[in-house]
Every structure is written in structure tokens, then in C-alpha cells.
Amino acid sequence: MSALRQEMLKKWLVGLTGFDFNLETLQAASSDASFRRYFRVEAADGQKTYVVMDAPPEKEDVRPFVQVADLLRRGGSNAPEVLAENSEEGFLLLQDFGNTTMLQGLNAQPEAKDAFYMQALHDLVHLQSSTSTAGLPVYGADKLLQEMNLFDEWYVGRHFGAEMTDQERNWLDSIKGMLIQSALAEPQVFVHRDYHSRNLMLISEPDAAPQFGILDFQDAVKGPLSYDLVSILRDAYIEWPETQTLDWTVRYWEAARKAGLPICEDPGEFYRQFDFMGLQRHLKILGIFARLNYRDGKAQYLNDLPMVLRYVRLVAGRYIAFKPLLLLLDRLENKAVKVGYTF
């Protein structure tokens, strides 16, 4: 944060009616994959902390965050309260959900994983069945394709420095078309788009039943029912055995039906939709993580590529239509089997 921006932030905080801060306590809380940064500041009496979002207006717009936070809270989901807004300068004052992500909680209490995931899935079903999609962008074919094209540009082109052959490009275009068709055929609901273990904050006491606060929802759209389920169960930051993922998926499917969501009645077909949605998302993520490194200098995301690639290979290996994608990945990674003949 530049000195000028920090002064702007402090001046805004000082001028807020009804709040009294100890600006000496202002310190970085976190950043994310965008240009947003977060700071924590204490009340003057030391009894409470707040989070301040810093979103430079030439790079980010805070208004979608405010809009979606309102939709979530109206629907009864646990999004942070927006306590003050300065959209012109790009600052928000937010309710503080603390420091502990679901991911950190899972690492600290691995024995509680089922309780954590069942709560996260319960919250997801509530979010999908109770949150209005009014005013949200539609997750349409153009957007789905644009996201997958990041794989071509940044993962294939920049990360490997490779060019696809015409045949590979045709194969990949056909696969993208299948993934888009599947996504658009699903029931369309509120989609958070990054509903995963780093964006759910553990706000319960250590020995209590887990409770989560939801963050990073500003890119929400109206889109496919299975999208957020993929985000949480095939999370780019923590991996579970396929049998565990299947078990949680079935339990979500049962809860979604009970809640009246328009979910596919055949659990096998729903798992196929889940697989296809996951492949779309993970092709996008391979491109985004490569871009975060090469364009934005955030090299830590390269460490997360292998897990995402395993998800891609898992699904591509399950459906014959996706075999050309495996062949492309093998070529990029130089894993092609060399066959020798003896005469």
C-alpha cells in the first residue's frame, strides 16, 4: 500500500461518524488474487476489531461486493456486514470474521473434517435456495469460454511456451463446447464462484460445532447449480480421496433435494454434471494460476498447479470424449510413451 493511499485510508477512517479507531493498530490482514488488500484495525477502546478493504478504484470496484453482501445477508447467509462504504476511493469497513480460514481449521483439527464439510455443504444449500439472483450477471456461454481460453493462453502458451497443433485446437474446442453445453443445461442459481476453504472463515469456538462466515463473493453470478459444490469439494488448496468426495457429493445431493432445489433426480447424472463443471473450472484455474505468476508476480500459485492438474486428469481420464485433452497434457509434460519395435 502506497504512503498516499495509506493516508487516504486513515483520513477516511478518522472522518467516519460513530466510529473511534486506534489507527496505531492498523496492519495488513491479507490479500487475495486480485488487487484488493485487507487491513485490520482496533476500536479505540480495544474491545473490537474491524476489517478494511482497500480496492484501488482504477483496478477494482467495491460496489459488487456491497451488492452481493446485501443479497447474501437478506437471504440469511453469514456474509460480513458492510459498516461503511467509500466507493469513490475504494474503501470498505467490514465486520471482522477473524483470522482462521476453514483450511487452517482443517489442518489444525483433521479429525473434524466431516463436521466442517457437512456445515459448509449445509450453508451452500441454504445459500443456493435462499439467495436472490436479482441484478447478478448471467454465467453464459461467452464467459465460460473466455475463462477456459485462459488455459490456452497462459498455461499452454506461457507456462509451457508451447503452441497447439490445429488438430489439438479443434479437439480442445470440441471439449470446451461439451463443457459449456453441460453447464448451461444445469439449473441456474446463485453462484458464489469461489466457495472454498480459503474463503470460508471459521468463526466458532474450537470445541463448538463449526460455523463459517463467507468472504470473496464479489464475482457472484447466476449460473450452474454444481459450480460451488465443485469449488468446495475439488478445492484447489486441499485434496480428498475420490471416495470421500463422492460421499460428500451424495450427501449434498440429498440435502439439496430436501431443500427443494431443482437438482437432477439421478445422482449418477448429477455426478457427471459435477465432473464436467469441475473440468471447466480447473482448466480456467490452470490458466489463472499461470497468469498470476507470469503477469502479476505471484509465484506462490505455481505450487497449487499440480493438485489442479490431478483434478483435470481425473475427469479427462474418466470420459472417452476427453482423451484428446490427456494426450495434449502428456505432450506438454513430455510423458508420451515411446514404443520401440524389434524386427
TrEMBL record:
<feature type="domain" description="Aminoglycoside phosphotransferase">
    <location>
        <begin position="26"/>
        <end position="252"/>
    </location>
</feature>
<keyword id="KW-0547">Nucleotide-binding</keyword>
<protein>
    <submittedName>
        <fullName>Phosphotransferase</fullName>
    </submittedName>
</protein>
<keyword id="KW-0067">ATP-binding</keyword>
<dbReference type="InterPro" id="IPR002575">
    <property type="entry name" value="Aminoglycoside_PTrfase"/>
</dbReference>
<dbReference type="Pfam" id="PF01636">
    <property type="entry name" value="APH"/>
</dbReference>
<dbReference type="InterPro" id="IPR011009">
    <property type="entry name" value="Kinase-like_dom_sf"/>
</dbReference>
<dbReference type="GO" id="GO:0005524">
    <property type="term" value="F:ATP binding"/>
</dbReference>
